[in-house]
Structure formats: structure tokens, C-alpha cells
């Protein structure tokens, strides 16, 4: 499965920034050893249900340290029998773009 998630901890930054807290969540994901990617809006992680959800839970906790609340947006692609789809899905789209 692939899970794309975004955490939004309440911040104390006067500009409303949360990058330092979000970086803590991304660090948890990267240290998990599971395939992952991060863009401006979401972090995606691929693996089995229990392992992915455990990493998301830990990432949310890390982002929420020192915050009164954390918002979580999560989208999951659950497709049993498929692996290495984090890159493969993008590669298929890119192939279609090259074709025309």
C-alpha cells in the first residue's frame, strides 16, 4: 500500500510556519527504511498496512511535540499483490507523456 499524508501541527512561529515540526515527521519516515518521497504538500510511504500506519502514527507524534493539536490528512492506495509502486506509478504517467 501507498499512503500519502500531511501533518499540520499548531505552531508558535509568528509567520505561521510549521517546517521545523514537519521536518521531525519527515525524519521519522526517512529513518523507517520504507520507500518514501516528500513534496511541498505530502509525504508518501510504501509498505504493508501495519508498518506504514505505525510510521504515520510515530510521524504525527513527532510533529506534534510541543503542539496543542495536529491535523492529519491521509490518502491510501490499497492494492494487494503490488510492490514498488511509489516510483512505478509515476514512471507509467511519464511514459504516457513521452508518447505524446
UniProtKB/TrEMBL annotation:
<dbReference type="GO" id="GO:0005829">
    <property type="term" value="C:cytosol"/>
</dbReference>
<dbReference type="InterPro" id="IPR002767">
    <property type="entry name" value="Thiamine_BP"/>
</dbReference>
<dbReference type="InterPro" id="IPR051614">
    <property type="entry name" value="UPF0045_domain"/>
</dbReference>
<comment type="similarity">
    <text>Belongs to the UPF0045 family.</text>
</comment>
<feature type="domain" description="Thiamine-binding protein">
    <location>
        <begin position="3"/>
        <end position="94"/>
    </location>
</feature>
<protein>
    <submittedName>
        <fullName>Uncharacterized protein (TIGR00106 family)</fullName>
    </submittedName>
</protein>
<dbReference type="Pfam" id="PF01910">
    <property type="entry name" value="Thiamine_BP"/>
</dbReference>
<dbReference type="InterPro" id="IPR029756">
    <property type="entry name" value="MTH1187/YkoF-like"/>
</dbReference>
Amino acid at each position: 500500500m501507498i499512503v500519502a499524508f500531511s501533518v499540520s501541527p499548531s505552531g508558535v512561529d509568528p509567520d505561521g510556519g510549521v517546517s521545523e515540526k514537519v521536518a521531525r515527521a519527515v525524519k521519522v519516515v526517512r529513518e523507517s527504511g520504507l520507500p518514501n518521497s516528500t513534496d511541498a504538500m505530502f509525504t508518501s510511504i510504501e509498505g504493508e498496512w501495519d508498518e506504514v500506519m505505525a510510521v504515520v502514527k510515530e510521524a504525527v507524534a513527532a510533529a506534534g511535540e510541543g503542539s496543542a493539536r495536529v491535523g492529519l490528512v491521509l490518502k491510501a492506495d490499497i492494492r494487494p499483490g503490488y510492490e514498488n509502486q511509489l516510483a512505478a506509478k509515476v514512471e507509467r504517467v511519464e511514459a504516457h507523456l513521452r508518447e505524446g
